[in-house]
């Protein structure tokens, strides 16, 4: 039996195809981190740990006849999941009437997983020992001016790019904004005929994204080259069969995923 345990269900191949399509469609709409991070994988569900190197520090060290690697640690790839139920009566009715099965719950679980993935990417989980783009130690942090006024946002982003360049990070660059900051930039800049966000977009070659998981007043500028960071995927997002309970069918949308930060100086957080 496979890890996703689909053989334990009585679902037709067509229904599983429809579930897969619904999960993928919903996840693609909601995911933000995957739009700019390099993907390493999928490696398979059997890969539980992955090495994270500090690129500027990693090296072999020989001492007392023993060789070890400094600047490297092995981290468990966590599982993200969300459960949903398909009612047996609904499945029977769909089969008899020839209607497609309503997969709204599968899509909602996929969206929930997508938000959990992005939350892990941006904020990590301090209790579990995972770092995020906004919370990792050693990243660049700069004071943010009021982005609803004047050219403050443009000046801040330009200064952050200059800071990255001085640190040997030459791009490309990506800017991710909380929803409130994204809306603040939807205004005409006097004397230019351009929206403020359009001016900033030129600085990062159009790579601007917004994410609801950032909360309010948050922004982060990164150089997401694979030498700086990537997103490790073991099991890509998919639906698994859990059990039949009270005649209804319980399923789980799951994935194993981990952000690897290799060069912390490739990140600037606006505070």
**Sheet/helix structural class:** alpha+beta
Structural shape: flat
Provide the succession of SSEs.
Answer: HHEEEEEEHHEHEHEEHEEEEEE
Summed over residues and divided by their number, the pLDDT gives a mean of 96
* Helical content (DSSP H or I, runs of 4+): 25-40%
Number of beta strands = 16
Question: What is the CATH-assigned architecture of the largest domain?
Answer: 2-Layer Sandwich
Rg, Å, rounded: 22 Å
Number of helices: 7
- What is the CATH domain class of the largest domain? Alpha Beta
Biggest sheet record: 5 strands, mixed
- Low-pLDDT segments: none
The span between the termini is 49 Å
CATH topology of the largest domain: Major capsid protein gp5 fold
Element layout with pairings:
Elements: H1 13-30, H2 33-36, E1 39-40, E2 49-53, E3 59-63, E4 66-70, E5 72-76, E6 79-86, H3 88-97, H4 104-123, E7 140-142, H5 152-166, E8 174-177, H6 179-184, E9 188-189, E10 194-195, H7 196-203, E11 208-210, E12 219-222, E13 229-233, E14 238-245, E15 248-261, E16 267-270
Parallel strand pairs: 1-13, 7-16, 8-11
Antiparallel strand pairs: 2-5, 3-4, 6-15, 8-12, 9-10, 12-16, 13-15, 14-15
Explain this structure:
With 271 residues, the chain is an alpha+beta fold. The protein folds into two domains: 6-132 and 229-262, Major capsid protein gp5 fold; 140-222, 2-Layer Sandwich (hypothetical protein PF0899 fold), CATH 3.30.2320.10. It has seven helices and 16 strands. Strand 3 and strand 4 form a beta hairpin. Helix 5 packs parallel to helix 7 (196-203). The chain is flat and about 65 Å long.
